[in-house]
Amino acid sequence: MNEPRSQAHPPAAEFLENHPFADISVGASASLQRLVTERDIQLFAAVSGDVNPTHVDALYAKTGHFQEIIAHGMLGGSLISTVLGTQFPGPGTIYLGQTLKFLKPVHVGDTLVVTVTVTALEAASRQVWLDTRCTDQDGDVVLQGEAQVVAPAEKLRIRRTDLPEPLMADKNLRYDQLLNAAKSLPRIKMGVVHPCSREALEGALDADRLGLIQAILIGPEARIRGLASECGLDLTGFSIIDAAHSHAAASRAVELAKTGEVEALMKGSLHTDELLGAVVNAQTGLRTERRISHVFVLDVPRYPKPLLITDAAINVEPDFEAKVDIVQNAIDLAHALGIERPKVAILSAVETVTPKLRSSMDAAALSKMADRGQITGGLVDGPLAFDNAVSLAAAKTKGIVSPVAGEADILVVPDLESGNMLAKQLEYLGGAQAAGMVMGARVPIVLTSRADSSHSRIASCAIALLVTAHRLKTLKALA
To answer: Distance between CA 160 and CA 104 in Å, rounded?
Structure first.
C-alpha cells in the first residue's frame, strides 16, 4: 500500500484510520511533509526540557559548529512516531523499537519528508519492520533508521482528538525592541536614589553597562560600597554622592534634577512617599502644571502590542481634574514609545454612561474633552468595560462602535486599587512583563518596586531615556 504524501502543516483530518496487519505488505509506505519552524523547536525544547543552546540560543549558535540554530535530532524522530501512530499502521500500533542515525543537521525553514516503508513481516506476532527516514527539501537524507512495531489486528476509524493550541510567547521580543530603540540614543544621567538593596543597585549598574544611563548613586556611600562588596558588584568608575539617609538622598536627588545635573531619577530602596514627597514639594520640588501620575508599560503575551495602564501607583482616588492630567501624561509616554496616535480606553464597570457610577461619568466627560481638543494626541473613548477595551469580539458582541474598543493602547482605570490589581494580575497570572514610569514632573522618574526584577528596572530605564529624548525633540520643534 502506498499512501500519498501530505502537504506541510496540512489541515488535520477529522478521523484517524489504521491499516490492520492483514492489509500490510512488504514495500507499503506512508509519509508526511513538515516545514520546521522556530516555534516547533521551541515547543520541543519546552516539552522535552532539552534547552541545549545549540537549539534555542541564537547568539550561542552563531559561535558553534553550525553557525545557526538547528533542530533537535529527536524532533525528526518524533515525526517518525507521528506517521506510525496516526497514519501507517496507525491507531492500535505498538512501538517496540527504533534505531536512528543522524546524518545531517535540520535548520529552521527546512522542509522534511518523513517516510516509513515496510521491509519485513512476521504473521505469528503481527510484527512489522520498517525503514524510516527523513529527507530535506534537497532530497538529502537527514535521519535514517529502522522501526519495529506490532500492527493492529482490527480495522479502526477514530475521531481525531482536538488539542488546545499551545501558547508560545517571546517574552524578550518587545524588551529587545525597547532596548534597541533606546540604545540608538545618547545615554542620560540618572540619579539612583538610595540604592541600598541588591535589586536596586544591580538594576542601576546593569542599565549603565548596557549604555542606557550614566548611573549617579545617591545615598550613604559606606553602605552602598559595603553592599556592592557583599554582592560581588564592581563600582569602579561609578559616581557616588554621599547622603546620610533615605530622606537626605531624596532631597539631594531632586536638587540635582532641578539644576539639570541629572536628567532622570530612579527610586532605590526607600519608600515611595519619601521620594515623591521631595518631588512634589512646592518650594524645592520638580512640580509642573501637571499632576504627577504613574504609567505601567506591560508586554502581555496574549495582547498584540504594548499595553499601558494608568494610574495604578500614585493617585489613590483621583478627582476629575487629576484624571485629565493622568490621561495626558499617558498619551505623552505613548508618543515617546513611538505610538503616534494612541487609543485610550477610559475604564468603568460598564460601557454605558450611568449617573450612579462616577467612573462612567468621568469617562464620558474625558472623551468629550478629547473631542474638543482639551486632551490632545490620542483617540479617547469611554466608558468601556475591560473586555470591550481589549477584545474586538467582546465589543462586537455588545454592539459597541468605537475607534478604541478592542484595540486600546492605554487603559485609564477609575482608581489606584483597581489599576494596581489589574496590572499585578496581568503580570503574575497573565505572564506580562512590566516596566513603569512617573510622568508629570520635570524629569521622568523610574518608580520601582522591591519585587521588580533587574529586567524590569532596565526596561524602565530604557523608557526614561526615550521619554527624555522625546521631550528634547518636542522642545526643539517648538523653539
So the answer is: 33
